[in-house]
Design goal:
The structure is a single chain. This protein is about 30% helix and about 25% strand. The chain has 15 helices and 25 strands. Strands 1, 2, 7, 8, 9, 10, 16 and 17 form an 8-stranded mixed sheet that branches. Strands 5-4-12-13-14-11-15-18 form an 8-stranded mixed sheet. The chain has a 4-stranded mixed sheet with strand order 22-21-24-25, covered by helices on one side. Strand 9 and strand 10 form a beta hairpin. The longest helix has 25 residues. It binds flavin-adenine dinucleotide. Flavin-adenine dinucleotide binds next to helix 1, strand 2, strand 8 and helix 9.
Length: about 550
């Protein structure tokens, strides 16, 4: 007999484990998340949170809190530039302004917020929604059979062991994922890119004059001594410097001297003195007074797991894909793994979904993981390690397509002929099944809400103003299948579309309809009215649920 039973066990209580716990709670599923460490992240690490993550955070009612918290450390604007050093020449601009062009695509914005500031907010919300988070607890063994998974947990303080029986396990246990290793799941990709360090520091002199009018945010540093990047807080005088490579990567004779590990391992034997030299060189002012608060060593890698699932166990976050931080994809992609998986687990546990729905997790998320690994690698090569050459890199896919334009192709989507694979700019996708449903502001009760605010818990049918027949059909089909389905006739239900942009944005006529999954992705659409709308909707729902 196990000591306890739980529908979902989550291994790892950091960014992705806590997000999974929060989203499962939102769907009414109890979970237990176990985490080795005593609390949430102690280092800032992830800081650049993208649109889709912020849309998820908005759905959880946390947008205002996260944006306010972000402003304690960072300004609401910021760019990403490359410099010789903070005092030196500016070499390139990668992102002029973090939120340039965002309006119109999303009701929210990208933010800089450090992972150690975000995680406690996620943890608190997860617990509010019914999750149990147990720190100083390690999962040391897993044994799965046809009916569930038995895990052995070790209480790291008491030194005792207990067992928990779960229907499903989510392994959000990081880039070295013990669960992935236990399941024998391999990784593919570009492997180890560099042994890197992060130097957390505080300057005792004002760096403001060096930054001049450069937007604060991320400053890549490229000089004969090193390559890496700064993330500075709004004062400009504190933050961290990542150093990926040391050595003059532009000189062939230097590369030739270190053929196997050219950018001599900066992490190995790093001392405070060496870190200070690197930091001063990156600032570009010898002898500038700075205090080093911490030095962390880590491996920059670009790899994706060969499978994201094994039976009842699912990999999420860095356990499933590891990328260099360039572009800010690691944590953001993990949050979207959780978003894709939570509703599928909830509907499977509720007996509403067919057995194949959970299989679509790998089918939908692994291609996105592989794309993300390649795109982060391209950004690493172009911004940090040009000596690697671009022969093995994909062309850059723009940030909007990466953040809110990635597409799903699986049995849980009724694809239309001619759909592009993998990604499409949100300007082009216009409600095409497989894409994230577009954002349109509608008016409601004298205020406004985004179409995105209608999604998140159940399936949603959005019909055009002449789509009354869909409303009647939807209620009947949902009742027959026992599926929760919210139906909105735009132009009715208290929802108005003053600008008249809803049908066009979703690629339908005023008599058409779109079926949106709980994760906000379009699963099916009818561009115009149908002869047998109830049959069409029943078939669509059955497909989306893999029944
Ligand atoms: C310098 C730097 C900058 C970055 N910048 C960004 C950025 O701007 N944007 C972004 O999105 N990402 C960024 N990242 C990446 C981001 O930090 C990671 O992608 C993110 O932390 C992954 O979260 P995770 O929960 O999957 O894994 P982790 O954060 O690694 O958490 C895994 C957790 O599992 C626990 N664990 C492991 N095994 C067990 C076990 N057996 N039992 C119990 N607990 C276990 C570990 O203790 C750990 O807390 C950056 C990373 C670095 C290093």
């Amino acid at each position: 007999m196990p000591d306890e039973e739980i529908p979902v066990l989550i291994i790892g209580g950091s960014l992705v484990g806590l997000t999974t716990a929060m989203l499962l709670g939102h769907h009414g599923v109890r979970s237990l998340s176990v985490e080795r460490h005593a609390g949430t992240a102690i280092h800032p690490r992830a800081g650049h949170f993208q649109l889709r993550t912020m849309e998820t955070i908005r759905q959880m009612g946390l947008e205002d809190r996260v944006r306010t918290k972000s402003l304690e450390t960072y300004s609401a604007t910021g760019g990403i530039v490359a410099v010789e050093s903070l005092a030196g020449r500016e070499l390139a601009t990668y992102v002029k302004e973090l939120n340039e062009g965002v309006e119109g695509f999303s009701p929210t914005v990208r933010v800089f917020i450090n992972q150690d500031a975000l995680e406690p907010i996620l943890r608190e919300r997860a617990i509010e929604l019914g999750a149990t988070v147990r720190n100083r607890t390690e999962a040391v063994d897993l044994d799965q059979d046809d009916d569930g998974v038995t895990a052995t947990l070790r209480d790291l303080d008491a030194g005792t062991e207990s067992t928990v029986r779960a229907q499903y396990v989510v392994a959000a246990d990081g880039n070295r994922s013990p669960t992935r290793a236990r399941l024998g799941i391999g990784m593919h990709g570009h492997g180890l890119l560099s042994h890197s360090i992060t130097i957390y520091f505080r300057a005792l002199a004002d760096l403001g004059p060096l930054l001049a009018d450069r937007n604060q945010g991320v400053h890549y540093v490229t000089n004969p001594l090193m390559r890496g990047f700064f993330r500075l807080d709004r004062s400009g005088n504190a933050g961290f410097l990542v150093v990926n490579l040391v050595g003059d990567t532009s000189r062939p004779e230097v590369i030739a001297a270190f053929p196997s590990a050219p950018w001599a391992n900066v992490a190995e034997g790093i001392t405070e003195q060496r870190a200070l030299e690197l930091l001063r060189a990156a600032i570009g002012v010898p002898d500038i007074p700075v205090v080093i608060e911490n030095i962390a060593t880590w491996r920059a890698e670009a790899n994706c797991a060969d499978r994201f699932a094994d039976g009842r166990v699912f990999l999420a976050g860095d356990a499933a894909h590891v990328v260099p931080p360039n572009g800010g994809y690691g944590g953001n992609t993990g949050v979207q793994d959780a978003h894709n998986l939570a509703w599928k687990l909830a509907l499977t546990l509720a007996g509403v979904a067919g057995p194949g729905l959970l299989d679509t997790y790998d089918a939908e998320r692994r291609p996105v993981g592989e794309l993300t690994v390649e795109q982060a690698f391209t950004r690493y090569v172009t911004r940090v390690a040009p000596y690697l050459g671009t022969e093995n890199t994909q062309p850059i896919v723009d940030d909007f397509s990466m953040e809110i334009g990635y597409r799903y192709d699986s049995p849980a989507i009724v694809l239309e002929p001619g759909s592009p694979p993998l990604h499409e700019h949100p300007r082009e996708s216009a409600g095409r099944p497989g894409a994230r449903a577009p954002h349109v502001f509608l008016q409601c009760d004298g205020g406004r809400l985004s179409t995105l605010d209608l999604f998140g818990r159940d399936f949603v049918l959005l019909a055009g103003p002449e789509g009354e027949a869909w409303r009647t059909a939807a209620s009947a089909a949902a009742k027959e299948l026992g599926v929760a389905l919210d139906v909105y006739l735009v132009g009715d239900n208290g929802l108005t579309d003053a600008g008249g942009s809803f049908p066009g944005a979703f690629g339908i006529s005023p008599s058409g309809a779109v079926l949106v999954r709980p994760d906000g992705f379009v699963g099916w659409r009818a561009v115009t009215a149908a002869d047998a709308p109830e049959d069409d909707l029943r078939q669509a729902l059955q497909a989306l649920l893999c029944r």
